[in-house]
Amino acid sequence: MQYYNPDNNSSRRWAWLAAGLYGALLAAAFLFVSVDASLPIRQADAILVEFEEPKVPDPPVPSRPAVISVRTGENTPPEATASIPNLFLQSDDKAGRSIDLQLYFADADAPGDRLSYFVSPSAEKVVECRVQNSELLVRPCAAGCTTLTVTARDLDGAAATSEFQVIVDGTGVAMELFPNPCRDVLNVRIPDAEGDFSIRFHNAAGQQVLATQVSIRASDNGNTGRIDVSGLSPGTYSCMVECRGRKLNSHIIKR
Question: pTM of the prediction?
Answer without folding.
Answer: 0.51
